[in-house]
Amino acid sequence: MKETTSNLYPPTFRVNLPNNNNIKELVELKPSPLTDRELLEIFPEAKEIIPEKLKEWQEREKEIKEVIKHDLRLIRSRVKDSFSRWFWREVVKVYVGDELLEVERQIQRLKRLIFISKGNVPESTNFSQEKLRQAKSTSIVEVASSFLKLRRSGRNYVALCPFHQEKHPSFYIYPETNSFYCFGCLKGGDIIKFVEYAYHYSFKEAVEYLTRR
Description:
Elements: H1 2-6, H2 21-27, H3 36-42, H4 46-78, H5 82-117, H6 129-137, H7 140-144, E1 151-153, E2 156-159, E3 171-174, E4 179-182, E5 188-190, H8 191-199, H9 203-212
Antiparallel strand pairs: 1-2, 2-3, 3-4, 4-5
């Protein structure tokens, strides 16, 4: 499995930005006391950077997914016994999963910034920040365990994906980031996105559901 494991360690992605902490907070996924709209108003030059950075993150996403597909194909073709196949699939999913989720969070943040920069109002602004915070802080493990058979896998949980048919679990829940990702159908996101997929809810309906629990 030497060829497989070498592919599990892609180089860490780096974004080259102007040496300005506030612009970095805006374009990267960093906490800031200002809203995205306020930061865009203060630093309008960031509007030109965002589309370029979005393309870079999307390319990184493609690279990671290709690594996953390549390694899983290699495992199927070269590893004969079922336990070893299971073990190497778990290595691929656990190790690459965190990086892929981070990349996808960056992509969603940049798409949202582009949306705002064009003068649009995000759907999430229909809710108070407290209501959104409450929805996003709801435990995804608690919600998912009500209809999924979760199995502990290190710091995370694994189950058969509820969004497509499969025989081997490829659906991972990451309690530390309150998020999920399926290595089979490639769906992922936060607790709100999970409820949207699971119950066929709109964003608004998902937030309302989580805040009523």
